[in-house]
Amino acid sequence: MTSLTSRIAGSSLGKKLLSSPLAGIAAFPWRLGAVAKANAKRAGAGARWLFGSRENTNYTYNLTERNLEHLAWFVSTLVDIPVSEARGYMQELLDDDALKKHVADAIQASPQRWLADSTARFGRRVGWYAIVRARKPKNVVETGTDKGLGALVLAAAVMRNGTGRLTTIDINPDSGYLISGVWAEVTNRVIGDGVETITNTLSDVDFFIHDSDHSSEYEKREFVAIGPKLTKDALVLSDNAHASDSLLQWAEETGRHYLYFGEEPLNHWYPGASIGVAFR
Hints:
With 280 residues, the protein is α/β, with parallel strands linked by helices. The chain folds into 2 domains: 3-51; 63-279, Vaccinia Virus protein VP39 (Rossmann fold, 3-Layer(aba) Sandwich). Helices cover 48% and strands 15% of the residues. The chain contains 11 helices and 7 strands. The chain has helices spanning 3-8, 12-18, 23-52, 65-79, 83-94, 97-108, 125-135, 149-161, 194-201, 216-226, 246-253; strands spanning 139-143, 165-170, 187-191, 205-210, 230-238, 257-262, 274-279. The chain has a 7-stranded mixed sheet with strand order 3-2-1-4-5-7-6, with helices on both faces. Helix 4 runs parallel beside helix 7, helix 5 packs across helix 7 (125-135) and helix 9 packs parallel to helix 10 (216-226). The longest helix has 30 residues, at 23-52. The radius of gyration is 22 Å and the shape is globular.
């Protein structure tokens, strides 16, 4: 029982009230308080973000400690490694001061600095990094480069593996402005449509991430296009699985397994995105 219902049920009259049609009315003040408390917390986080952040899309944030632990177990299950190893890979990225400094410097030097935060906050991309470190794919493909934060994370994992290469695709010619320095040495940047690029130029893809046009129809087209280009044990990820069923539908249609991880952002108004993954 909640504290309110406990108090109401403390008398015989209260017990009768809780089992009557008036129970909803009696509980309404508590329910209203619960909603107000939750909304106040979200509103406070939103106000801090409005005045403390410059981002207008593709929001970045850290994850709660509990959510990072959920992510470690998700990675451990997906790629069949001890959870301690998954935690180690994730911490490796979180401790990468050189990468974080590069993000800050590149954003400060960019004409787009007024719409981006210079602090590197990786969110679910910590999971991308750990998966690539564990699986050591030779051919990593990402659609939807945006400013290039996800690409940097993937490139950093490829670099530490000492093998492999990243291809990141975006239709916007101004995308990818974070990708420079040593991280660019393992990265192919492609300006063009994702489906067309996949169809006409790619092969032997070991690790694919959809993060471009998030309409369900276009997302499904990317999965259909990438299917024949995948290696036997390839992983296919969606950065939009919280909003679209395209990946889980494609996974079932192609006889694959499917797993899902949902984010819990730390001190942020946005409820979080996700990692959906289809695999053999």
